[in-house]
Structures are given as structure tokens and as C-alpha cells.
Design brief:
The chain has about 750 residues and is of the alpha+beta class. Among the domains are: about 140 residues, no CATH class; about 160 residues, no CATH class; about 150 residues, no CATH class. It has 27 helices and 24 strands. β1 and β2 form a beta hairpin. It is elongated and about 130 Å long.
Length: about 750
């Protein structure tokens, strides 16, 4: 509603834009009624629509209300109707004593130059006018109207637009352009005096490629395209009529509702709430911009309308660390705990019996660090290292994390603040107490999480070159909250455990010697006993353990991982038993399941190192239900025998002497026969890599052509290379053999 402004406020008035004319409106009047009126007053309200599509409200925010533009000559006016953009040119009183004539002449000279022509901005060689350019005050004018109160009736006309007009300084851009033109002309004149003739320039002809739909959408939404689109709309020039002009008086009559004789029934039949909703409808922009779930404040009523998986994800993303009991209380008593357990494992990891949100949830794929700009992949790896450290101990030292991850202090501090609190002179302690109740209640979930942490640990050891500790690791489900131990205490614990293990092994060795001495192996044969040094025994043990180290696929750690029936693996009968299953003699269900996994894996991958195969097997175990037959225990030798029995062969790749690959990474297996047409091509390729660590493509192509006796197409060569190899620096390597 347009009204007289208070002293000191800004000027505003209404204007009607018609076909080629611009008419200002008188300002409406509002004020307090006389004190003699009663509290109850009824006023008839009419809606005038004659100017609904033409009525604009002009605001001058840089102009006091006491200084109007009513008596200032308007030289020109123009509008772009679609954009609701208006430009007005108003004269400047050059005879006013406050006007600096020398400054006005200087501005006109800078803009137009010394020569005046028809295109000059200031034809009088004096800045005698100024331009006002509009901007939209609001894009939604459905709530605003201009009101006219006359003879006890209130007439409302909806506003088509609300525009704010401010002085435009585009003439300064013209002055800069003139200055640059003069400088360019002077430089061109100087250089042309030294040149006898123009240089011949080469012209490159380019043809534009067909534009895709995605590229077209990006181009349409770009800022340059929108500016070009706005510039294409033509200006519509208008004639300005003054406030006291007869045409203005005639147009002002359209602010009154035509035909308001009272014949129509104007009685209000709506309820107060409906009438209020009609007067103040909800803004569509506010409904559109309303977030589904705020990042810092959660509406539980709104949250419970989402699917269960989204509820868990949003809660964990905001809380970061939470016990399972607290999560169930937030989700409500009617939610099934099994469904929550299934959903929480997709977005969080188990640390000391509590759930910590996964790193890739906090750092999506295309994001980066706000502190250092490090990509999300590096941040996730560093945060996973911090989470893994908390699975080993209650305490973490920030400097140690920064030294290993090579991340800045701010990033490491963010990781720790998500899941720990700082203690003076101690380090960072995990923020929640150890939840032993959850560990005892859900051993299957704990076991699956342990398998996942095993895979993450192997990845971290490879990336950060971590040295494996001699002490057995503690899993979340096996140990209670760990205490903070100094270096000397750790050494003493290791020594005591080593002495206990040594004594146990000595007793077991003596018992077996007595059994052998008491039993007759063959008649007439005597067994000669010779003393064996402890050093020799230790050497044999190490060789036996290196020859066959079982995969860590169970929750048990420490001594039982390295013992078979109470003896080291090198001394046990059979030499390689694990969990009661001799290698190569596994039960039929276990062998079938293991072979099915191996065959399915090599049908997808074709070439795998033993290290990568073990990692994939651990992930496969983590996805299996508790009590599956594969949890009975699978050794490395059993896995390798199954691979060889499934139609695969070990490729003896000649690694360079300075390679950093581990022994498991140097054991390369490849699918030899799969029954398809590419078997012969793959076998030739694998024979090449059995003699070469890396090969160029032309050598592979010529060898394939020579062995297969036909000219292979590029697609066939690409397929066999894609199945088995990777390319780095123009050379091709078998998958898994090149260190990233």
C-alpha cells in the first residue's frame, strides 16, 4: 500500500505504464482517525482491476521523501516489460548554485570527447542530465496493492511490480572506453610508422561439434546466456506525463472500482480463518526453499516422516557418535531393532561398542577440505585411520595422527572432535564409554564389523606403510576398554607374554618327545635323539609360519591364531591344519562354498593377487549371515589350492629387485580357462607377463597376431587388455602388480 512517508524516509509513488505512456499517481493518504470515532467502524472494500497489469510502485531509496522528482523535467522513459526494467532520464539544474560547472564540463569531455556528434551523451558539452535504472524490490507482488480511500470506500488495485530506481553511472564506463580507444589508436599509430606493410596472419578454420543435451542445458543456465537473453529484449520507449497533466488525472480515475453501485452482493461469506488465508496466502518460494532436514537443527516430527534408512543417516550425520540404545530411543519404540541394525551398518562403523558415522557420509565424493582443499578421498582415509586407532585404544595422540596421515592440524582436529574429547597432558579420549552390553547382545554384528575393520586395516597398512605390531590386536567384541600404556609398560607386557608362550611350547615339546619314546615306530628301529638349539627351533617355526600363515577370519587373536592343536603350525601333525581342517581336506560344504566364491570372483576379475583375493574374501565373509560354513576357518594354502583347482594358474611375474610389493602381492593368479573365445588370447598375454614385468602395447599386439595366426581387431585387443591389465606411463602391467 502506497502512503505518505514519515519525515526522513525515502520517496515512493505509483506509476501506470500503458501503451507508450508513463503516468504518475498521487500518493495515497493514511492517518489516524479522529478521537471521537467509536472503536467499531465498517468500511466497504472494492477491488479495482482496470490497472492490475499496468500499475508499478517506484521507490527512490537514495532520495529523501522531502525532495521529490515531481517538478523535475523527465527527458525520456523506456521499459522492458518482461524483465520489468525501467530507465528514466531526468534533467539536472545546471543553474543551481550547488552545481559545479567545471566538473560537469570535465565529465562531458571524458564521456564524449572533444568532437560532439549525434551519438554524444551530453550534446551541450555539459553534464545536464542523469539516468535512473530500476531493479526489482521483490519478485512476488501478490501481497501488495495500492489503496485509494474516497467517500467512506476503500479501493484496492493490485501492484504489477515494485521497482527501486537508483542513479546509473554507465557514463563512467563510456569514459573508460573512450580512454582505452585513444590509447589503442596512439599505439597503433606509432607501430604503423615502422612497418612497411601488414603482416600476413594465418587463419585457422574450426567447425563446432554437435552440442549434447547436457551441454545445452549448462549453456542455457549460464550467467552469460542469461545476460545475452536479457539484452535481446527490446526497449519500449514511453512518453512521460506530469503529475498535474490532464492525462494523469484521467488515468487516476481507474484506481476506483468501476460499477461499484452496490447492486452486487458484497457480504463476506468466508470464515475468519479462510479470509485470513486469502489475505495472506503461504508464499510458494518459502515452501519451495524449505529444507527437508536442517543441517544443524532436527525436527523430530518431520524426521519421522522419512524412511527409516534416511532417519538413521540424518541422525548419525548430525550426532557423529551414538550408542545403539540412544539411537533406538530417538527412532521410537515401534521401530524394529533388527531393521535398525541393518540400516546402521550402512552408514556407521562399530568402535568400542558405539556407532561412529562413516567417513564417506561426512565427506562426499566431490567435496574437499574447507581448511586445506584436500580431496574427500584423502580425508576419508585419514578419518578411517583415526577410527581404527580408537578400535585399538581409548587414547589417541593428535601429533601421531598428523605424522602418519600427513594432513594439516585443522583437518586432524576436525576428525578428533567428531569422536573424542581432549585431556590435558594425555591426548584425545574416545567420547563415549565402552558399551559392553551391546557387544554381548549382538556377537554376530560385532563379528561382521571386525571383518570390515580387518579389510580397512590392510588398506591403511598399505597406504601409510604401517608396521604391524607384535602384540595381538584387540577386536571390539573381544576386549574391554583399553588402558593408556607407556612404551616401557608395553615392552614389559610383550616380554612376559613371550616368556609364557616359550614355557608353554617347551612343555608341549617334552610331552611329545615322551610319547614318541614310549611308542615303537618300527620293530628293530631305534630313534636317535639329538639336542636342538632354541635358535634352530625358532628358525624352523618362522619358516613354517612364513610358508603357511592362516587368514585371520575369526574373532580369536593372539596365541590361537598361530597354534594348531596347541602347537605352532610348523610342528603340528600335518603341518598346516587350521581350526581342525587340514589343507586340501576341507569338508564338502566348505569346499563347495569356497570354490563357488573363487569361480565367481575370477569370472569378474580374471587376474588377482593373493593379497587382493584375501581382501575380497574378507568382504565376502562380512556379508554372510552368522553361522555360515565359511566361518569354520580357511587357510591361505586352502584358498590357493581352491584357486588352482578352479581353472586358474599362478603367473610367476618377474618383479624388479627394488619392488615394494609384499609376498602376498607377488603371488599372482589368473583365470586360464573360462570356456569363451578369449581364452587363447588371454593365455598368450599371460605367457608374455610370465617373462616380463611390464610390456608395451605394440609388443602384445604383434605377439597375439603371431600366436593366433590372424589379424586381431582393436576391440579384441582392448578387451583382453582391459580384463587383465592396467596402463601406467605408456606401459602395461598385470592387475595388482604395479604399486600406485
Amino acid at each position: 500500500m502506497v502512503h505518505n512517508e514519515e519525515p526522513g524516509s525515502r520517496e515512493a509513488h505509483c506509476c501506470t505504464v500503458g501503451q507508450g505512456w508513463l503516468v504518475p499517481r498521487r500518493k495515497s493518504w493514511t492517518g489516524s482517525f479522529s478521537d471521537g470515532l467509536t472503536d467499531h467502524l465498517e468500511i466497504d472494500v472494492y477491488l479495482a482491476k482496470s490497472l492490475a497489469e499496468k500499475l508499478y510502485l517506484f521507490q527512490y531509496p537514495v532520495r529523501p521523501a522531502s525532495m521529490t522528482y515531481d517538478d523535475i523535467p523527465h527527458l525520456s522513459a523506456k521499459i522492458k516489460p518482461k524483465q520489468q526494467k525501467v530507465e528514466l532520464e531526468m534533467a539536472i539544474d545546471t543553474l543551481n548554485p550547488n552545481y559545479c560547472r567545471s566538473k560537469g564540463e570535465q565529465i562531458a569531455l571524458n564521456v564524449d570527447g572533444a568532437c560532439a556528434d549525434e551519438s554524444s551523451t551530453y550534446s551541450s558539452k555539459l553534464m545536464d542530465k542523469q539516468t535512473f535504472c530500476s531493479s526489482q524490490s521483490t519478485s512476488n507482488t501478490a501481497r501488495y496493492a495500492a489503496a485509494l480511500y474516497r467517500q467512506g470506500e476503500l479501493h484496492l488495485t493490485p501492484l504489477h511490480g515494485i521497482l527501486q530506481l537508483r542513479p546509473s553511472f554507465s557514463y563512467l564506463d563510456k569514459a573508460d572506453a573512450k580512454h582505452r580507444e585513444r590509447e589503442a589508436a596512439n599505439e597503433a599509430g606509432d607501430s604503423s610508422q615502422d612497418e612497411a606493410e601488414e603482416d600476413v596472419k594465418q587463419i585457422t578454420v574450426r567447425f563446432s561439434r554437435p552440442e549434447s543435451e547436457q551441454a545445452r542445458q549448462r549453456r542455457v543456465q549460464s550467467y552469460e546466456f542469461l545476460q545475452k537473453k536479457h539484452a535481446e529484449e527490446p526497449w519500449v520507449h514511453l512518453h512521460y506525463y506530469g503529475l498535474r497533466d490532464s492525462r494523469s488525472e484521467h488515468e487516476r480515475q481507474y484506481l476506483l472500482c468501476q460499477g461499484s453501485s452496490g447492486v452486487e452482493n458484497t457480504e463476506l461469506v468466508k470464515s475468519p480463518s479462510e479470509y485470513l488465508m486469502m489475505l495472506m496466502p503461504p508464499s510458494p518460494e518459502e515452501e519451495k526453499d524449505k529444507p527437508v532436514a536442517p543441517s544443524n537443527v532436527l525436527s523430530m516430527a518431520q524426521l519421522r516422516t522419512l524412511p527409516l534408512a534416511d532417519q538413521i543417516k540424518i541422525l548419525m550425520k548430525n550426532v557423529k557418535v551414538m550408542p545403539f540404545a540412544n539411537l533406538m530411543s530417538l527412532l521410537g519404540p515401534s521401530i524394529d531393532s533388527v531393521a535398525v541394525l541393518r540400516g546402521i551398518q550402512k552408514v556407521a562403523m562399530l568402535v568400542q561398542g558405539n556407532w561412529v558415522v562413516k567417513s564417506d557420509i561426512l565427506y562426499p565424493k566431490d567435496s574437499s577440505s574447507p581448511h586445506s582443499g584436500v580431496p574427500a578421498e584423502v580425508l576419508c582415509r585419514g578419518r578411517d585411520f583415526v577410527m581404527w586407532k580408537f578400535t585399538q585404544s581409548r587414547w589417541v595422540v593428535r601429533k601421531e595422527v598428523a605424522a602418519v596421515t600427513k594432513l594439516c592440524t585443522e583437518d586432524v582436529k576436525d576428525f578428533l572432535e567428531h569422536m573424542a574429547v581432549v585431556r590435558i597432558n594425555k591426548g584425545w579420549e574416545f567420547i563415549l564409554p565402552y558399551d559392553g552390553e551391546f557387544i554381548k547382545k549382538h556377537p554376530d554384528v560385532v563379528q561382521r564389523q571386525h571383518m570390515l575393520w580387518t579389510g580397512i586395516q590392510a588398506k591403511l597398512e598399505k597406504v601409510y606403510n604401517l608396521v604391524k605390531e607384535s602384540l595381538p590386536k584387540k577386536s571390539d567384541g573381544q576386549s574391554g576398554p583399553a588402558a593408556l600404556l607407556s612404551g616401557d609398560q608395553r615392552v614389559q607386557v610383550a616380554k612376559s607374554k613371550a616368556q609364557q608362550n616359550h614355557a608353554l611350547l617347551e612343555r608341549e615339546l617334552q610331552r611329545r618327545k615322551e610319547q614318541l619314546r614310549a611308542s615303537a615306530v618300527l620293530p628293530g628301529v631305534r630313534i636317535k635323539e639329538e639336542p636342538v638349539s632354541e635358535e634352530g627351533e625358532d628358525e624352523e617355526d618362522r619358516e613354517a609360519e612364513e610358508e603357511e600363515e592362516p587368514m585371520d577370519t575369526s574373532l580369536g587373536g593372539g596365541l590361537h591364531n598361530r597354534l594348531a592343536n596347541g602347537l605352532p603350525s610348523g610342528r603340528a601333525a600335518g603341518g598346516d591344519s587350521f581350526n581342525g581342517h587340514p589343507p586340501g581336506c576341507a569338508s564338502a560344504p566348505v569346499a563347495q562354498e569356497l570354490r563357488a566364491f573363487v569361480e565367481a570372483t575370477f569370472q569378474r576379475q580374471f587376474v588377482l593377487t593373493l593379497s587382493e583375493l584375501k581382501r575380497l574374501f574378507n568382504l565376502h565373509l562380512a556379508s554372510l549371515p552368522p553361522g555360515h560354513t565359511l566361518f569354520s576357518g580357511i587357510s591361505d594354502r586352502m584358498l590357493q589350492d581352491t584357486v588352482l583347482a578352479a581353472g586358474c594358474r599362478q603367473i610367476l611375474v618377474p618383479f624388479p629387485p627394488q619392488t615394494a610389493a609384499s609376498p602376498d602381492e607377488q603371488k599372482v593368479f589368473a583365470l586360464w580357462e573360462s570356456g569363451d573365445m578369449s581364452d587363447q588370447h588371454r593365455q598368450v598375454l599371460l605367457e608374455i607377463f610370465s617373462k616380463n614385468y611390464r610390456v608395451r602395447r605394440n609388443m602384445i599386439q604383434s605377439r597375439l597376431t603371431q600366436e593366433c595366426g590372424e589379424d586381431l581387431s582393436k576391440q579384441e585387443v582392448d578387451k583382453v587388455l582391459k580384463d587383465c591389465c592396467v596402463s601406467y606411463g605408456g606401459m602395461w602391467y598385470l592387475k595388482g602388480t604395479v604399486q600406485s
